[in-house]
Amino acid sequence: MFIFSMISFSAISYQQIHPFDPLNPAEFILIKTILHNAYSTSNHNLAFHYIGLDEPDKSSILSWQQNPAANVPPPRRALVHARLDKQTLKIVVDLSNRSIASKRVYHGFGFPMSTLDQETVASVLPLSYGPFIESVRERGLNMSQVVCVAFTAGWFGEKVSERVVKVQCFYENGTINVFLRPLHGITIVVNLDDMKIVQYFDRIRVPVPKAEGTEYRPSELKPPFGPRLNGVGVASPNGPGFKMDGHKISWANWVFHVGFDARVGSIISLASIYDLEEQKYRRILYNGYVSELFVPYMDPTFEVYFKTFLDAGEYGLGQNAASLEPLNDCPANAVFIDAYFAGQDGSPVKISNALCIFEKHAGNIMWRHTETDLGDEVREVRPDVSLVIRMVSTLSNYDYILDWEFNPSGSINVRVGLTGILSTRAVPYSHIDQIKEDVYGSLVAENTIGTHHDHFLNYYLDLDVDGEANSFLKTNLVTKRVRDKISPRKSYWTVVKKTARTESEARVDHMAGFGSSEYVVINPNKETKVGNNIGYRLIPMSAARPLLSDDDYPQIRAAFTKYKMWVTPYNKSEKWAGGTFVDQSRGDDNLAVWTARNRKIENKDIVLWYTLGFHHVPSQEDFPVMPTLSSGFELRPTNFFERNPVLKVIRPQHVNWPNCTNHH
Amino acid sequence: MFIFSMISFSAISYQQIHPFDPLNPAEFILIKTILHNAYSTSNHNLAFHYIGLDEPDKSSILSWQQNPAANVPPPRRALVHARLDKQTLKIVVDLSNRSIASKRVYHGFGFPMSTLDQETVASVLPLSYGPFIESVRERGLNMSQVVCVAFTAGWFGEKVSERVVKVQCFYENGTINVFLRPLHGITIVVNLDDMKIVQYFDRIRVPVPKAEGTEYRPSELKPPFGPRLNGVGVASPNGPGFKMDGHKISWANWVFHVGFDARVGSIISLASIYDLEEQKYRRILYNGYVSELFVPYMDPTFEVYFKTFLDAGEYGLGQNAASLEPLNDCPANAVFIDAYFAGQDGSPVKISNALCIFEKHAGNIMWRHTETDLGDEVREVRPDVSLVIRMVSTLSNYDYILDWEFNPSGSINVRVGLTGILSTRAVPYSHIDQIKEDVYGSLVAENTIGTHHDHFLNYYLDLDVDGEANSFLKTNLVTKRVRDKISPRKSYWTVVKKTARTESEARVDHMAGFGSSEYVVINPNKETKVGNNIGYRLIPMSAARPLLSDDDYPQIRAAFTKYKMWVTPYNKSEKWAGGTFVDQSRGDDNLAVWTARNRKIENKDIVLWYTLGFHHVPSQEDFPVMPTLSSGFELRPTNFFERNPVLKVIRPQHVNWPNCTNHH
């Protein structure tokens, strides 16, 4: 990452910018300038915590989209969350006329997303703090090898919330895998507005786990190495099969826009698929992104209890996006996109290769059949190819691989991969037989407990199935007894379809209808020739229900985990399942609260919120770095098309490895 | 497929044959000869229904495996299921001394797997059957365009079972997709032992759905075609990364044997992984295969009620394996294996390219981390590669893609893909508004109902985690309240581990512990250095519970679907979850019955039986051929290794696309 030098405003030309394009460096600088003029920083303490595109009104986007060439795009606006003299500001900046469109002071609970700069400053405070230096000395450790990390503090019922983080420290000496070497027992509370240490705790003295075995850099590893994987060449000599026009992607029968936001990371917008029969593009997904990510740890002791992170709203999935490594994070045929976000001072910060896009040739079969009941055997097979949009978000120890995979069949497969480093606690034990207390995790190595935890991702899915007006349909499979002796068969199942009229009717419990229901977003105003409602259904790939008590503070704040699916009427202001200001939030502004109004959702522009969960009981394989654990879900057309949309697919031409010497 | 000419016995050399190698053509001919000598076919009516490898005693395999070069392999034997003069014979042939080791007449319920020859003969009988010819004429159809298919009849409480199939017919005229053109209403019952029609029903007259729109051959499709997929080259210039020694595969850190059986298809045996730390191979899976596949249709009317197929035991997943199409069924870098099974007369029948093996370069990430809390950013990423063993089994209309995927991390990912043609029922309706009765399915096209149905695959998984003596551990995540105010946190979850002592304790209901349990096969006699029991856990990817009533005949026969997981003590005779002779079986010999003995399973050689289910409510996209719908499960090491087993993986060398013109 590097800070930008000034860019002239003339760089901005709105005709070229897609309304969903992320804010560009010139725009960030313009916003910074406008706000610095409004709040002279000489006599104000101004910090930018979030600057993102203020989503244009849906109606204006849709009318513009009718003819982007001719129509004027909707006004370009930015949403700004800032701290000004210990107050939270919500500002909307109009970039078209370079003015402040609206501003208000937020007086509710919770604080904006943290800034990387403040996290950094807070994490170095202890290094010059007497009592901490003393604690380190008493432990016989070398101060120069200590690194500290600022963790959000959550909310646990306190009446007044100072804006604080809890800083904990780790020991580098001999490894870069510091998360496996905690100085367990020391917690430093830092007030971020005053940027000073307000509380200091040194409660427990337990040896720092040893560095040996924690490294993952090849240079630091001893032989033997292995296993050896075979080299392969993948290439598209005709170039990539997809076209990019700025952030607009077209591939096979798909068109969509890939955005980027400091808070939620990658955003898929205006995804439409070309219908060969109707000879036109048909709308599916207006907007889709990870709206929140809840990671509660299951150790209630003083040093860990507060670790109940809402990573998107507290840290930002986008501003923590990792630069992707060609050939390793994404295959040889990948194309990369850089991303930008605003630093604390408003200047644009670049993340190189924040996203990658590649055609996935996994050797899957799109469809096939061998017909053997006729005289001669007939066989037809179509190999599958898909297009993947990948972002990796690294939130201190954990790395989240976030894929959107588009299939020509109309399916959108969303995949999440968990890898990175466990959050651990130091203990004196080298064998589980020595453990007589509850250590709230697994002994994954000597003196090292991998703490039990969860990962709950909530996906915001504004499906517009062939238009905005949609309904949420529950298709329940119900056992029937066979009556009036039509056959010796005694039972069968049939489907009972129920359209959810209100938000409460739409909610899907993690257990309810499990293994015997389908969940479909339909367009009640359109049907196929034979009369089926056209729709898309969500097929989960796994399941984990929240296990915290409903009355526990983290669960109140992350109440969106309570249900697997929620449906709300589209509301521009309801973007993030955990609420707008989730740092130290109190659960008074989130998906659970919004839906309590129990609004009508039938034949309306609706949003589906899907919660994908993982429980994680760490195992030794997760040490010192965790092999990817994956899950996800599929959005699959269900009577959206008149028939198989890839029946007439044109097979990828097979490219032979050239018959000549190749150069490694 | 083609029938073999005689092969001299001298072709057989037992030192070269791995004890798990499938029977080879010479062996089939030897078996045929031995049995023809025993039962002179001049005065006997002898038909071979199943000839497979008689699995050697596990103890003898394991002792042989200690040093395959020096030790003599266990005696080579074949298990034969035959029909002799309307009786079922179970014969074991000893190939080493060319004799019959044992033979007995089976007097229980149920019949052996059907033979392709008998299915074919039965399916042509109607074509020369007066009443049927009359029915076809009355419908104004052209007899020369009629094709019939024999369907197993199931069991529905009748006291006496004749060995019958129910033949139903389809209309080809203008399409090869005959399953979409049923002559609905006509059912012909054929006695297979007498090979004659014993009952004839022409109950309903409904128009045959039109051919238009049913084709899937490009030659028969009209433009426009699309979408167009981009060509890509995939090649391993250094050759495939795996070695094949007959049916023995070694790749990366894996070694295993790939077998083939007429009934269950591909079999993975003796799978072990090389442990870099212990510098030795460690055992994981002794044997794994699809032990049964239950496909009940949900239409109770006379024409459909009996369609409750047990595809493995009734039809044979192996003898119905499709010949895989290079570049389309498997990618360019795949290697293919032919397979053989015994025809009805005992002669070997070849299936070319019955299996394929390929390295999968899907662009996944094996593990990664970006460390940002230190001065300089550190990034380590390892791309993933896996090895796939694929078989496609085509059971008349349906195609099952059955993959075993081995990952260097120690995970075995089992994947099932459903594609092919729907089983349909003809109706007079062209729009759902016309439908006033229950049609037991979805109107997927004019006059065509895609019938509701399920697919339940049961996987036999004889895990030997670092040895035979294993236990089945349920790890339940349980919510705890925080006591004695150690923090303001109110709750957390912890793990409660319970070892199943008996078969009844081991069973896992489809709903039980859903989303809050882990299921691990551990070795209670071995532990890691820090004391964790080494194990492997099964992670489901989806779920569908059976919806038939417990007292319904098909559910009694397929009772293995009742639970998601079962555990039994290893018993050589318990191979197939639906029982041995499942055609018209009565559920008196299957997994549910065996486990009713409630045997002890703790610290024993145990077998895990996993049921993977799909409910299928057809949609129009499934017409005329269904885009693949996938699910599966993961077997993942859980404290099997001391640490991440791919920490020191040697990255695949990237191979550049040669810098020279390539030839298409």
TrEMBL record, chains A, B:
User: So what does this thing catalyse?
Assistant: a primary methyl amine + O2 + H2O = an aldehyde + H2O2 + NH4(+)
Family, according to the entry, reads as follows: Belongs to the copper/topaquinone oxidase family.
| Cofactor: how and how many bound | Contains 1 topaquinone per subunit.
Q: Specify the taxonomic lineage.
A: Eukaryota, Viridiplantae, Streptophyta, Embryophyta, Tracheophyta
Give the species this sequence originates from: Ficus carica
Q: What is this protein called?
A: Amine oxidase
The Copper amine oxidase N3-terminal domain is annotated at: 121-208
Question: Per its Swiss-Prot or TrEMBL entry, what cofactor is needed?
Answer: Cu cation
Assembly and partners are described as: Homodimer.
GO biological process assignments: amine metabolic process
